[in-house]
User: Fold these one by one.
Assistant:
Number 1:
Amino acid sequence: MAKPTTYVGSSVAIFLESTTSPGTYLRPCGLTNHTISFSKNATEVNVPDCDDPELPSWIERGVESLDFSGTGSGVLASEAVDSWWDAFNTTESINARIYIGKPDDAANGRYWQGKVHVTGFEVSGERGGKAQVSISVVSDGELAFHNVTAP
């Protein structure tokens, strides 16, 4: 049996396009947990049997739309507050990349790129601890899937 090549958890990450250097994607500091989710919205149609319409029909499904959502949480890094706030505090979608694998790993790195909305920016804290942050993002249109290429 061959051992699989696996990813470390920190290689799943949301990168935002720099507002000062277009085409450059930066990983806001502090998030220690990322979850990404892709889903299909399907339509359903009951298709009866032509020879015996009284038989139970089979449901056939068609894909109506595709969707992406993601979340991140971790410590609130002061270096990332402006990035998350600016991304949240706009009505325009922003460019982002969602990585699995390291951005410089041409052998194993992959990412999705497209427009997203930051729909949630939550900050919490308790006495004696570190401030925490949670963010939520959703796609605004298609996300294209890419392999990381060598620099």
Note: The two ends are 33 Å apart (CA to CA).
Number 2:
Amino acid sequence: MADNAQTQTKTAINEDKIWTKDFALICMANFFIFLGFQMTLPTIPLFVQELGGSDQLIGLITGIFTFSALLFRPYAGHALESRGRQFVYMIGLGIFVLSVASYSIITSIGFLIVMRMVQGVGWGFSTTATGTIATDLIPPKRRGEGMGYFGLSGNLALAFGPALGLALVDIISFPQLFLICGSLGFVSFLLSTRIRYKKIEASQHKAATIKFDIFEKSAIKPAILLFFITVTFGGIASFLPLYATQKGIEGIGIYFLFYALFLMVSRSFAGRLYDAKGHIAVFLPGTLMIVTAMLLLVWLPNSLVLYIAAAFYGLGFGSVQPALQAWAINEAAANRKGMANATFFASFDLGVGVGAMTFGLIAASFGYSFIYLVSAFSVITSMVIYIGLLFKNGRTA
């Protein structure tokens, strides 16, 4: 009897264990692909300027990437359930590596736009897959906490990627930088070959191939809320380096470092808070911090305020994003987790793309500071919608 009790206890512990070999591998693979991506985030606008592009073109080139990812996420979501996790993930990683490496030979805006669209396809496939793979590996009872840990791999990349990209572009050429970014993606590809992936059952394969749709209905509410929040990211990724330069403020690389560090701080407790009390405990405090960050950027008198804005943005976004993702996944049926992730990240892409394109026009007409005022109102819209959902559904949304 005692032996059986001990065996059952060990089994329960193993079933609730987050940090397995496969989970560590997917986190490492996610880190390297995000590092390569984050190094291009603040440098692509500079590259567009070097090619002779305007603010409108910077917004277009940022937006076209995210819209390309958005269009292909439904295909990725269905392929995850019909062709398997490994197939989708490795295809996405391969496309990403080749497209980013191709930037090293680009000499025209037109060619860059085409390859940004190709990169978006790879990004859409790989990030939809990696979120689903992580979901497979995390015990359901600890999903909020586990997704928080998984998100840290991307946050670590964000802590170093933008600053590293900006530092390298001062000492090496853009072609050399893009080859390094492609090589980091290739490391992710190699790590992906070592992961044991969830097998697709025959019944699940049949369910995924009978019907093709473009979103998971149960993930719509968190996806809509996310859209209005990630609009802010379009303004930061595309125009904050240019805005800081215009105002004569140094330390934009440190901004991204501070943002990532405080993102990691929030991830250390927000996931557990979500598991214990639900999204109601993290959403409104998190979005309030994001609004504060945007208003600080509107003001932006010096580097200190820039860093304080980074801290608020990191704490807020790091609290809200994993809670919304866990909400989207938990509401979906077992054979719809891939589509739930696809819907969630499609909303992310749409917010960034709409933000980047819209803010390119706003910057040209009203200046950079107006971007962040509009961003603040976008997040307030998300807060209003959330409060409406609480009242409509008896404070459970």
Note: The radius of gyration is 21 Å.
